[in-house]
Specification:
This protein is an alpha+beta fold and about 350 residues long. The chain is about 40% helix and about 25% strand. It folds into two domains: about 160 residues, no CATH class; about 190 residues, Nucleotidyltransferase, domain 5, CATH 3.30.420. The chain binds zinc ion.
Length: about 350
């Protein structure tokens, strides 16, 4: 079973609904802190809620909160919760579809509500799978971020392989090009210029702030940068998987970059170290979107992928900046595309460790 999480934005709630969500969160937060101090927490059942308050809170939420506080207390000695969002298990959370509109239904203070969600295209795929029984809905958390309400839900599914073709796609991640995807010699390029520029701007801004020790501002800037990068990674991964699906690719291959500390011999390699989390995130997004589309994912050993020619000749001199020119046979093409092609062929073999994780 694979599990992914979807963050579903609730379509702008009415003032009344928003007040209900806030009230639920307040009650639940106070209850969680009360539980922390409760002597018999380990034996607590939903009945203890009556000892805490006469205000109504759905037993579905009460049960989840008790379970969660128990495990948190055991694991990390939580002293106080600043906020404890309401969570629902899969028996109390349902996905519905009405006139093309996706809805989530869950219990609130007053009654059960059916709330429309703003579902992105890839999220709609998942919601349809839940409705058809191909995927299972897990627990959900109701939370607010930057003025918007969301339900974050877990979705589990049995991965399947739909394509019986033998077509492979190789994806190379780098700095000059954030990603290059190749099917045979047909390549798709995603430029990194804009990303590099934005990240440099954020970084230099933080350097000025650093000397003034404005830590909260630095953190906000980092959050903003990672949100920006995340959106870009979602966009790129969507297009890559789309390209693969359109071309009947059976398997997407990427380099296993874990544990690699490349010496910065080139700008590209330096980039790989600097932006490793962004590359890792991009690979993860590609992986889960591929699986969603029934496309396999394999990780390959990254050695020599950028130095090897299709004639088999391996040489550092084969690479001249962004261009690959084989010193032996003069075969010439874009360096990252050549790497992506070599990745698709798994010239240095598959990575055993990483493929176990991905399976
Ligand atoms: Zn050659």
């Amino acid at each position: 079973m694979e599990t992914i999480s979807l963050k579903l934005e609730l379509m702008k709630p009415t003032h009344a609904k928003e007040q209900i969500y806030c009230k639920m969160t307040e009650l639940n937060t106070a209850f969680s802190n009360w539980l922390l101090q409760y002597d018999e927490l380990s034996k607590a059942t939903s009945k203890v809620y009556k000892l805490f308050s006469a205000d109504k809170l759905p037993s579905a939420i009460v049960n989840q909160t008790i379970r969660e506080v128990k495990s948190q207390k055991k694991n990390q000695k939580a002293k106080a919760f600043r906020r404890f969002w309401c969570t629902f298990n899969n028996q109390n959370l349902k996905v519905e579809k009405e006139n093309g509109l996706y809805k989530l239904s869950f219990p609130t203070l007053e009654k059960r509500v059916g709330v429309p969600v703003v579902a992105e295209l890839y999220q709609q795929h998942w919601l349809d799978k839940i409705l058809s029984g191909e995927a299972k809905l897990g627990a959900g958390e109701l939370y607010k971020k930057k003025g918007k309400w969301y339900m974050s839900v877990a979705v589990s599914f049995e991965p399947k392989v739909v394509s019986s073709s033998s077509k492979m796609m190789g994806v190379d991640v780098g700095l000059n090009y954030l990603a290059v995807a190749s099917i045979g010699t047909n390549s798709l390029f995603f430029k990194g210029n804009e990303a590099a520029f934005i990240r440099r701007t954020f970084s230099s801004r933080r350097k000025t702030l650093g000397s003034n020790k404005l830590l909260s501002v630095i953190k906000a800037s980092k959050d903003k940068e990672s949100q920006w990068m995340k959106n870009l990674n979602h966009k790129i991964s969507r297009q890559i998987v789309h390209f693969a699906a359109e071309n009947g690719v059976r398997c997407i291959r990427m380099e296993d970059l874990t544990g690699i500390r490349r010496k910065a011999k080139s700008k590209k390699d330096a980039g790989r170290n600097l932006h490793s989390w962004a590359h890792y995130q991009l690979q993860q997004f590609i992986e889960y979107k591929a699986k969603m589309a029934g496309i396999q994912v394999e990780y390959v050993n990254p050695h020599h992928t950028s130095q090897t020619c299709k004639c088999g000749h391996v040489d550092k001199k084969n690479r001249k900046k962004h261009t690959f020119v084989c010193v032996k046979c003069q075969y010439k093409l874009h360096a990252d595309a050549n790497a992506a092609i070599n990745i698709s062929k798994a010239i240095s073999g598959l990575s055993k460790k990483k493929n176990k994780q991905a399976a």
